[in-house]
Amino acid sequence: MTRGQVQEPQRQDPRRLKVRGLACGYGETVLASDLDFEVAPGTGLLLRGPNGAGKSTLLLTLAGLLHPLAGSVSVEGHDPDDGPALHYCGHRNAVRARLGVLDTLRFWTDINGATGMEPAAALKRVGLGHIAGLDAGYLSAGQQRRLVLARLLTTNRPLWLLDEPSAALDAEGQGLLATLLTEHLGNGGMAVIATHDDLAIAGLSTLALGARP
Ligand SMILES: Nc1ncnc2c1ncn2[C@@H]1O[C@H](COP(=O)(O)OP(=O)(O)OP(=O)(O)O)[C@@H](O)[C@H]1O
């Protein structure tokens, strides 16, 4: 730096998923407790653990679809004027059988906000461009999963909560998922992903949930 130049302070992205003292479960059944973690821009968290450990339950709690049994979840630094902070993609693909593939994506995009890719371009990106007019009910399991990935692309939201996103995806589809996640994190996004598969992506740490007795 030459004399007289003022160095701009590094603009820190203030957004964070912040979890404090969180317990989640159903009624008297506590599946996980005393959870304290943060997910910062450009990073993600993998939820690991055996069947029934509570990964989906934790994701639902992070998404605000289940009340915490204790503690708090917040997405700090997110401007509500920018719309909802997160995408939640659960086990089910939320596909209506008699609605076309492109129309399904347009339907979601109309609801969620057209802040990302054009639906037709997003379909091509996930490898479904050639069947845009097909009724979504005729998609294979892996193709339905790809359609869900396209939903992430048509509406920009900083935090992706993904439950088994690679389920039913072939090797190429798993590579696509890794690429989309890498790009999302590279753009300052955040992610929490429950999976039994390997996801070779930089910037991920792991939270292991225990087995139930
Ligand atoms: N609504 C509910 N009421 C009571 N118990 C529930 C409810 N939903 C799920 N459970 C139980 O909570 C436990 C954790 O389920 P969860 O789906 O979170 O596990 P998971 O770690 O995601 O498992 P998997 O790897 O099989 O997807 C299971 O024993 C399940 O039966």
From TrEMBL:
Cited InterPro entries: AAA+_ATPase, ABC_transporter-like_ATP-bd, ABC_transporter-like_CS, ABC_transptr_haem_export_CcmA, P-loop_NTPase
Top-level taxon of the source organism: Bacteria
Database matches in PROSITE patterns: ABC_TRANSPORTER_1, ABC_TRANSPORTER_2
Domain ABC transporter, residue spans: 17-212
Gene Ontology MF term list: ATP binding; ATP hydrolysis activity; transmembrane transporter activity
Cross-referenced SUPFAM superfamilies: P-loop containing nucleoside triphosphate hydrolases (SSF52540)
SMART domains, alphabetized: AAA
Keywords of this entry: ATP-binding, Cytochrome c-type biogenesis, Membrane, Nucleotide-binding, Translocase, Transport
Biological-process GO terms, alphabetical: cytochrome complex assembly
Similarity remark: Belongs to the ABC transporter superfamily.
PANTHER family named among the record's database cross-references: ABC TRANSPORTER I FAMILY MEMBER 1
NCBIfam families attached to this UniProt entry: ccmA
Protein name in UniProt: Heme exporter protein A
Organism: Devosia lucknowensis
Source species taxonomy: Bacteria, Pseudomonadati, Pseudomonadota, Alphaproteobacteria, Hyphomicrobiales
